[in-house]
Every structure is written in C-alpha cells, then in structure tokens.
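Slide 14.
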Amino acid sequence: MAFASKIDDFPRRLASYVDKLLKGAKAADLPVDQPTTFELVINAKTAKAIGLALPQSLLRRADRIIE
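Slide 15: predicted structure.
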C-alpha cells in the first residue's frame, strides 16, 4: 500500500521549473514545490499472498488496486 503524490503530476511540475530556469531564474530563488494531489494504491495480490484481509472501506477509498 502506498499513499503518495501522483506520479503523473511530476513531469508537469518539472517542466515548469525547467521553463523558469531557461528564462533566467536562479535555482536558489525558486520555491520548493509541494505536491497537491495524492493517490492511494493498494496491492491486493500481495496482501492476499501474506494473508492480510483488506477492509472494503479501505478498498473503496483506493485510487488504484493492483490485482
């Protein structure tokens, strides 16, 4: 199970930083970028293999379930 920032957002945020740097901004002057969207991914196959029962309420909240 993982709760982390969406990997799909990374290229967009990275492109924004590169754009600013290419336009002459100093890296030290750029703010630290914080993720704004997160996703919950559950590996149900591994949970089943180790005998872990996952509550339905948790599975309903997951953005992605790996079967």
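Speaker note: The beta strands are 2-5, 38-43, 64-66.
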